[in-house]
Amino acid sequence: MTSRNISRFWEWGRKIICVGRNYADHAKELKNAVPTEPVLFLKPPSAYLKEGSPILVPRYSSNLHHEVELGVVIGKGGASIPESEAMEHIAGYALCLDMTARDVQDECKSKGLPWTMAKAFNTSCPVSEFIPKERIPDPGNVTLWLKVNDQLRQSGCTSQMIFSVPYLISYISDFITLEEGDLILTGTPKGVSAVQEHDELQAGIQDVVTISFRVDRQQL
Ligand SMILES: O=C([O-])CC(=O)C(=O)O
Ligand SMILES: [Mg+2]
């Protein structure tokens, strides 16, 4: 028996698995090839951020980007999950931001190095409250949006994802065992752009949830 409550999944210390380049329009805006297999990376649980605390621009970055994404919260763990059973493993969803130090990522890419410094720093994973599965009957058909200081920057539908949520669960679980409380970030649509200290970010899943976060700079 456990007293942990899945609606506070960010407190569980579980892994965050991120999918990159899952929308062709975003892959193209960063001049990346449209992938034929999912591109994956990880964030540590220390990256989680809840509303009320600011997103911190890392000291070593001067180009922090927002990426609004649908997050999938795993309810029932498993390995080698067939795509046809994947939906049974979902407990719910969360609206997530994959905050990315784009200048650092560009440098890592050019040197052929991992993206950890660009993607996994403290506060790089702001999340909404837990959204029970029933509130999103089809994760392949929800609209995500993001505004910076009231200006719309990102708007896209998850129907544009290259790899669907059930496919991703099956693909990932073939080599990383999924556990209850894990979070999968499913990639961002186009419109990513830089944020500055004192900016106000607002994002939403249309008709389901909204979140807001302020941006601050990590103290020297
Ligand atoms: O940094 C990137 O462009 C890859 C990524 O996370 C995404 O597409 O959501
Ligand atoms: Mg992303």
From TrEMBL:
It catalyses: a 3-acylpyruvate + H2O = a carboxylate + pyruvate + H(+); oxaloacetate + H(+) = pyruvate + CO2; 3-fumarylpyruvate + H2O = fumarate + pyruvate + H(+); oxaloacetate = enol-oxaloacetate. This is Oxaloacetate tautomerase FAHD1, mitochondrial. The keyword Transmembrane does not apply. Pfam families: FAA_hydrolase (PF01557). Keywords: Metal-binding. The keyword Hydrolase does not apply. GO terms for biological process: carboxylic acid metabolic process. One of its GO terms (molecular function) is acylpyruvate hydrolase activity. InterPro entries: Fumarylacetoacetase-like_C (IPR011234), Fumarylacetoacetase_C_sf (IPR036663). PANTHER family: ACYLPYRUVASE, ACYLPYRUVASE FAHD1, MITOCHONDRIAL. Residues 15-215 form the Fumarylacetoacetase-like C-terminal domain. Its EC number is 3.7.1.5, 4.1.1.112, 5.3.2.2. GO terms for cellular component: mitochondrion. It comes from Takifugu flavidus. Belongs to the FAH family. It comes from the Eukaryota.
